User: Which sequence fits this backbone?
């Protein structure tokens, strides 16, 4: 069956009769994210809501005032997933969430154009593609694509967009000779009765079940974002089309304005200023490490020279780092003291690293209680514990626990 959305991709409202309404437990899949669903699947006489297929995600919309959360194709039926039932025989008004639909049309038609230019002009066939929530990619049967090719392909696609090349749809039967000229990466077997061919001028003919624009000018612009490694030696070429380009550009402008305010200089100086900040930070961190090493040694000397020699050390300094604590633990290893040292995360003060070290008898008595109070993850090994604490708010309870333990120890 050819659905109404495939006959007219720009139809935003349509009335149709309810043929089936059944309870269902199904997963909602949206841009790869899976959530559990329990509700109803509704079949209509026809639909303008596109069921997921051909690499294009499903539409969302409404049947009267009931929200459609997903549409899937099963044979020649489109299953509309809703939280509320509809009576069989009822005539409902379908409405589409147009912003999402048009975005998918732009990305999908843009992919057809991009894949055609890559294959015909650069012998780079597309083996699959992905339409994501923010950006998309075509998988190419190549291990790399040069920056010159990417730049030339982008310019060629945008030239054709500016030329307003028409995009038409042909409907063919399985034995139609027109199919010999059309490309496909494989259609489902139950889609072989009536086959749609998306024709972009004389540039490309491709069998496809998705929704598309009627003219390349509706794509507005295409932007190639570069490549990343794919599977089995292939490569992904990422791209944006139409409104996604302008939205991304606006996000970039917002970030640039924020950086300009923080750096107090014009945008063309950002790189220079950030490099300078990084260099200064590296120098500052090196100096800080030297100071912390000296401070750690000072603490070690103070502890070793204490009279009488302490049986335990409980230390949690604001300036402490995991390295600072490790220096102290290593220096006091073998002194027979029970050590507890903690350092917090700069951006998450309630979380941090803890070190516990000492005679096994003390670690066995105190270790599990301390790690439970601090929600710490890790394990004791040879009288030592090093791990992450999920909640440092229990430090005072831990300190009291250690103090009472040693006060009662004979």
Assistant:
């Amino acid at each position: 069956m050819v659905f109404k959305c495939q006959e007219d991709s720009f139809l935003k409202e349509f009335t149709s009769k309810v043929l089936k309404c059944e309870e269902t437990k199904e997963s909602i899949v949206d841009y790869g994210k899976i959530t559990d669903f329990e509700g109803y699947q509704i079949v209509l006489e026809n639909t303008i809501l596109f069921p997921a297929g051909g690499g294009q995600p499903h539409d969302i919309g409404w049947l009267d005032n009931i929200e459609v959360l997903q549409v899937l194709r099963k044979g020649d039926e489109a299953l509309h997933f809703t939280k509320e039932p509809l009576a069989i025989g009822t005539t409902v008004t379908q409405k589409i969430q147009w912003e999402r639909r048009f975005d998918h049309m732009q990305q999908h038609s843009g992919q057809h154009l991009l894949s055609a230019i890559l294959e015909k002009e650069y012998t780079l066939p597309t083996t699959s593609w992905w339409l994501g929530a923010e950006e998309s990619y075509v998988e190419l049967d190549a291990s790399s694509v040069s920056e010159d090719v990417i730049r030339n392909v982008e310019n060629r696609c945008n030239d054709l967009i500016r030329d307003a090349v028409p995009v038409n749809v042909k409907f063919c039967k399985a034995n139609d000779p027109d199919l010999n000229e059309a490309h496909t990466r494989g259609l489902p077997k139950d889609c072989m009765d009536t086959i749609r061919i998306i024709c972009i001028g004389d540039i490309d003919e491709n069998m496809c079940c998705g929704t598309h624009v009627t003219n390349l000018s509706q794509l507005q612009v295409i932007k190639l974002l570069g490549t990343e490694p794919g599977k089995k030696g292939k490569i992904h070429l990422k791209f944006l089309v139409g409104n996604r380009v302008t939205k991304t550009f606006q996000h970039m402008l917002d970030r640039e304005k924020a950086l300009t305010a923080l750096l107090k200089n014009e945008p063309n100086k950002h790189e220079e200023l950030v490099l300078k900040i990084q260099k200064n930070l590296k120098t500052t961190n090196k100096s800080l490490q030297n100071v912390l090493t000296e401070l750690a040694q000072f603490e070690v000397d103070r502890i070793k020279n204490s009279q009488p020699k302490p049986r335990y050390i409980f230390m949690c300094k604001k300036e402490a780092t995991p390295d600072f604590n490790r220096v102290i633990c290593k220096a006091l290893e073998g002194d027979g003291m029970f050590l507890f040292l903690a350092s917090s995360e700069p951006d998450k003060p309630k979380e941090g690293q803890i070190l516990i070290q000492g005679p096994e008898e003390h670690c066995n008595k105190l270790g599990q209680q301390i790690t439970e109070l601090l929600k710490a993850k890790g394990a004791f090994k040879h009288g030592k514990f090093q791990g992450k604490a999920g909640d440092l708010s229990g430090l005072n309870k831990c300190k009291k626990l250690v103090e009472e333990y040693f006060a009662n120890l004979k």
Notes: The mean pLDDT is 92. The helical segments are 4-7, 98-122, 147-162, 243-263, 270-304, 322-331, 360-373, 395-407.
